[in-house]
Every structure is written in C-alpha cells, then in structure tokens.
Design a protein that fits this description.
Blueprint (H helix, E strand, L loop, with lengths): L3 E6 L2 E6 L5 H11 L7 E5 L10 H16 L5 E5 L3 H15 L6 E5 L5 H7 L11
Helix pairs in contact: 1-2
Length: 133
C-alpha cells in the first residue's frame, strides 16, 4: 500500500506510516499483514500520520480492527512511536483497550525511537520516560 513502508530487521518489523494514510487505512494494513509477521515484534512509527481529522467513530473502528487481528496473531510486543500530544494520547487509549482484553500482546507507546528496539529485543519492561506524559 502506498504510504506505508515496512522494514524487516531480524526479529523486528518496522512499519512507517506517511501523512496520506488515515487511521482506518492503517488498521486495514495491519489486519491484512499481521499473520505474515509471525511472532516478530513490531514497531508502528506514526510520526508522520495526521491525527487531526480523526473522528470518534474512526478511533472506535481502529481499536476494533486491531484487536480483532491481535486475537488471532502470534505477535507478542508492539512498540508505538507517537511523538505529538494527540498521537501519544490516542495511542495510550488504544494501549488501555488492548490491556483490558484477554490478548497476550504487550504494547508500549513512546515519543521517539530511542528505547524502542531495546525494549523489543531484550524484553525489558522499559516504561516511556516520565517527561513523555
């Protein structure tokens, strides 16, 4: 899909989303491709995604689509890079929904890439820095 780039680096899949991709297009991409990634950890780099035109129904649909794909997948960890306040806040809400389900996926939301790969590869439970909140 134009606007979404994937990069496979060993046990980590990095997905970078461009500005022209909306939340539901991204969810459709995840649903279509999640199964092919097996048990690899995934980074969602949402740095360039525009979150300002998102409606409540878009968020609800996104959460439903992603939770549906996570239930049947083998992915155990997802790190989300969401640098703006709006992106970070929405992804923290998404994380809360995932944690409230029976899914075994661990999700962390970061403002930048600094600690992401370390958390994914070593399995360390590194929380986002306090200044990220």
């Amino acid at each position: 899909m134009t606007g979404i780039t994937t990069h496979n680096k060993g046990q980590i899949i990095t997905i970078t989303v461009d500005a022209q991709i909306n939340l539901n297009m991204f969810a459709d991409f995840i649903n279509k491709n999640m199964g092919s990634w097996g048990d690899k950890s995934v980074i969602w780099n949402l740095t360039y995604m525009d979150f300002f035109d998102i409606l409540n129904k878009d968020i609800t649909e996104f959460i439903y689509k992603i939770l549906t794909s996570l239930e049947g997948g083998k992915c155990k960890k997802i790190a989300i890079i969401a640098p703006t306040n709006v992106q970070f806040g929405m992804m923290m809400v998404f994380k809360a929904y995932v944690e409230a389900t029976a899914t075994q996926v661990k999700i962390e939301v970061y403002r930048d890439h600094n600690k992401v790969e370390n958390w994914l590869t070593d399995g360390k439970e590194i929380a986002p820095p306090l200044d990220s909140y």
